[in-house]
Amino acid sequence: MILGIGVDICQNNRINVELSQRILNELEFEFYNNLKLDARKTEYLSGRFACKEAIIKAFSQADKEVYMRDIIILNDDLNRPQLIKPNFTNLKVSISLSHEKDYSIGFAIVESLD
Ligand SMILES: CC(C)(COP(=O)(O)OP(=O)(O)OC[C@H]1O[C@@H](n2cnc3c(N)ncnc32)[C@H](O)[C@@H]1OP(=O)(O)O)[C@@H](O)C(=O)NCCC(=O)NCCS
To answer: Residue 63 — left, alpha, or beta (φ > 0 → left; ψ -120 to 50 → alpha)?
Structure first.
């Protein structure tokens, strides 16, 4: 059963390096730091921000409070974003994100596995 959904859109030029400390967990920050191109860094940050806001909204609808830096999103071998944390028993979270030149968008669904 779906408990919550969330979506968020972020204007890429609202994102800056200072914000990265508030958006990214240490593991994500390591990946971000290794990105070479500024444009790629911006879209990565903006995409993470939008996706995390979407996750916060979806969890909120499922009566769970989560904070941005406690959320860890890492991409798998096929570059698919995976929510690593938080990891609640009996909840499944599906996420997706996309970026264009000016905007990034994130989407999340929280489902009960009971
Ligand atoms: C995977 C694919 C859909 C990504 O689309 P895109 O327009 O390049 O990129 P978007 O900005 O929309 O999305 C990028 C994000 O999607 C996610 N993503 C990448 N590959 C993914 C995959 N296989 N599955 C799910 N999510 C994926 C990542 O989170 C990525 O952002 P991040 O690297 O910052 O985390 C695209 O690369 C692809 O393979 N398309 C198929 C094209 C095709 O078959 N064309 C045939 C003729 S037109």
So the answer is: left
Contact 47, 104 (CB under 8 A): yes
Q: What average pLDDT does the segment 50-57 reach? A: 98
Residue 63 CA to ligand 1 center (angstroms) comes to 31
Q: Which domains does the chain have, with CATH numbers?
A: 2-112 (3.90.470.20)
Average pLDDT on 103-112 reads 98
Mutate to test the pocket of ligand 1, among 44, 79, 80, 109 (most ligand atoms within 8 A of CB): 79
Which residue, among 71, 101, 98, 108, has the nearest Cα to 86 in the 3D structure?
71
Q: Which residues are catalytic?
A: 57, 99
Determine which of 6-10, 20-24, 44-48, 79-83 has the lowest per-residue pLDDT on average.
20-24
Measured between alpha carbons, how far is 43 from 104 in angstroms, rounded to an integer?
A: 7
